[in-house]
Each structure stands twice: as C-alpha cells, then as structure tokens.
Design brief:
By secondary structure, the protein is mainly alpha-helical. The protein folds into 3 domains: about 200 residues; about 80 residues; about 100 residues, Histidine kinase-like ATPase, C-terminal domain (Heat Shock Protein 90), CATH 3.30.565.10.
C-alpha cells in the first residue's frame, strides 16, 4: 500500500513517531541523543520507586490487594534492576555506535515494559476501589509519567509506548464507571496524554537540533584549526624562503660590487692611458659598466625594499636644481630621437631621499623616450603644488600608454 493510499491517521502517526526527515541522522547522533536523555534517567527511576512505595503504602491495609501488590511490586523491582543494567551496559559499550539499532530495540522494550507495569496498576487498582484510592492511583501514575517522559523522548516510539501503556488503562477504567467526575477525570487524562506526546516530540527536536548544531560547531572548529595550522605552516615556509633570499642577495650584494668596483678602477687606468684611437672604445666600455652598475644597484634596491631593509636618507632638494640636472641628461637624448624635451619646475623644495626620487623620475622619463614614436612630440617633466605642504611631480608624453591588462596587473 502506497503512502497516498494510507489512511490520514496512519500517515500522521508515522510522521509523528519518526525523526525529522529533513535532517541527516547518523548513528553517532542517535547515540548522543540517548546519552543526553540518560542523564535524566535517575530522576525517572526515583519517581517510579517512590510511586511504587506510595501505592504499596496506600493499598497495603486492604488485605485483598496484598497478593496483587506483591506480584506487581516484584515486577516493578525487576524492571528497575533491568533499567539500571541497561544504563550501565550502554555507557560501557565501546561499540554502541555500531550497535545502535540493537540498543534502540532494547530501549523501546524497556519503555514498553515500564508502561505495562504502570498500566497494570491502573487497570487492577481502579475498578474495585473508589474515592480517595482512585485519586491516589491516578495521581501516582500521572506523576510517574510526567517524571519519565523527558527520558523516553529521545526515541519517540519508546515515549509513545510508555505513555499509552501507562495512561490508557487507567483512562479506560475511569471512563468505564460512567460518572460525571470520572468522565471529567478521563478527559483530563486524555489531555495529559496528548500533552506528554506533543511535548516529547518538541523536546526530541530541540535536543536533536542542539546536538546537530554542536556537531557542526565542532566540525567548523576542527576545520578552522586545520586552516590555521596550514596558514601557519605556509607563513613559516614563506619566512624561511624570505630569509634564504635575503641571505642570497646579501651575498650577491657583496660579490657583485667587488668586480664592478674593480672594473671601475681598471677603466680609470685605461682612461689615463687612452689614445685617440682607443678613447671611443673605452668610453663605450665605461657606459656599459655604468649601465651594469645601475642595473645591479636597482635589483639590490628592490630586494631591500621587499624585505623592509631599505635605508632612506631624506634631505632638502631644490626642484629647479633637480629639473636642471634632468634636462642636462635627457635633453640631448630626446633631441637625438627627434623629440622635444621640456622641464617645468616651480620655486619650491621637497624633503625626500634624493636617490629614490631621481630613480623614480629616471624610470618614467626613460619609458617616455623609449615608447614615444611620434616625431616632434613633447616629453614634459612638470611639478605643481598640492595644497601648502605637498608637491606633485609628473612625466607627460604622447606614448601609447598602458593597456587595460597592464593597468590591472600594476594597480
């Protein structure tokens, strides 16, 4: 029979008794659910023990009820002993996650047996008695059921079996007496039964939500620990790599400067002994040596900047004097390429590192001269004030500029 063909009552009962279908319930989650509920099991067992003692004390004076009380009490004590054995075995079982289905079946049987014991008390002790004895029986059974439902709510079939088996017989016994007060009491028992089942369902969902949230938090914390460890390992590896690079460039700084300095000394000697025939060659060698020295110094300077070891030496620099020096160096180069080179200084001075400022301007001017192909185009180096304390220096040319890809990479 398909789910659509089942009666509405059966569909409701199946949905009510099952765990939420929208959640992934694992065996480990079920075990945690049971462990959470078993923390309240001592309260339930204590309530059942006190309830049994209360009923025995109330009905012991009635001689006809003593044999039934003794048999009923014996079954109750056995059930309590089995319950304690169940709790002890469940806590000690190291494979309870793997055997969770077996433990669920045992738990359901244990709950049903407890319900049968209290249901038997309701059926056997209600009919022959009246008045205060019926009130005692109803009160004790309801109290025991209320004290026990938070424990059995970890598994809805167990709560349903315990509640219906313990309350249904006393409800039927009360209603069968056809009195007004008995009918009111029976209605109250029905309301109590519905309340316990509904509350058990809600408590089950709350505990399940808490366990799933706790599991998710633990997974997130574990993932965070893994990511932190991975990041820390990457940071340490990067730091070690940076230290190795710093040591390499420190050695390169020393090893490269020595031959370049020696080359400069040899060039000075050659210049003193130069003849008209060798002077042009020596001058070209000197220019090449200067270019190599500049390139090496730039590479080492970038390395020092990367590792935060760049030493700056601020000084007051006159912009007109700086621009005049730039004009003397790059004016002839621009004229040789067919370009017009102009400087537009302002009467001001700035405080900065002279070497760094000159290198920045030299890079911009060199690129401007290299990539400006239009004959007669201007390359302008200009300065302007930005407020009262800042000055902007710029290089303006008619070159192609940067592509969109280069702008994204640079900026």
């Amino acid at each position: 029979m398909t789910s659509a063909a089942r009666p509405p009552v059966l569909r409701f009962l199946k949905a009510f008794l099952s765990l939420p279908a929208s959640r992934s319930i694992t065996a480990r989650t079920l075990v945690k659910l049971f462990l959470t509920s078993l923390k309240l099991y001592p309260v339930a067992l204590a309530a059942q023990t006190i309830g049994m003692a209360g009923i025995a004390a109330a009905f012991w004076t009635l001689g006809a009820s003593r044999p039934a009380l003794i048999i009923w009490g014996a079954f109750g004590l056995v059930q309590l002993w089995v319950s304690l054995a169940f709790v002890r075995s469940f806590w000690r079982d190291g494979r309870r996650v793997e055997r969770v289905r077996l433990w669920i079946r045992r738990w359901t049987i244990l709950a049903a047996s407890a319900g049968l014991i209290w249901g038997a008390a309701g059926a056997a002790l209600m009919v022959p008695q009246s008045g205060i004895y019926q009130v005692v029986v109803v009160a004790v059974i309801v109290a025991v059921t209320f004290a026990s439902w938070p424990v059995y709510s970890c598994w809805m079939p167990s709560l349903t079996a315990f509640t219906l088996l313990s309350l249904a017989p006393v409800t039927v016994s009360v209603a069968a007496q056809y009195g007004v007060s008995q009918m009111i009491m029976a209605l109250i028992l029905l309301v109590v039964t519905g309340f316990i089942l509904y509350s058990g369902r809600r408590l089950n969902e709350m505990m399940l939500t808490s366990i799933l949230a706790d599991d998710q938090n633990q997974r997130l914390v574990q993932r965070l620990k893994v990511e932190v460890t991975r990041s820390e390992n990457a940071r340490r590896a990067t730091q070690k790599e940076s230290e190795r690079r710093a040591q390499f460039f420190a050695a390169a700084n020393h090893d490269l400067r020595q031959p370049l300095q020696a080359m400069g000394i040899f060039l000075d000697i050659l210049k003193r002994r130069a003849t008209p025939q060798t002077a042009p060659v020596i001058e070209q060698i000197a220019q090449a040596s200067a270019a190599i020295s500049t390139l090496v110094e730039q590479v080492l300077e970038v390395t020092r900047m990367e590792f935060g070891r760049l030493e700056l030496h601020p000084e007051v620099i006159s912009i007109p004097e700086l621009f005049a020096e730039i004009d003397r160096v790059y004016g002839p180069l621009a004229l040789k390429k067919g370009l017009r080179f102009r400087v537009r200084p302002i009467p001001a001075a700035v405080t900065t590192d002279r070497l760094m400022l000159k290198r920045a301007l030299q890079n911009l001017i060199t690129n401007a001269l290299r990539y400006t192909e239009k004959p007669g185009a201007e390359v302008v180096v200009a300065a302007r004030r930005l407020g009262r304390t800042r000055v902007s220096l710029g290089v303006y040319d008619a070159g192609p500029g940067l592509t969109a890809e280069e702008k994204t990479r640079i900026f």
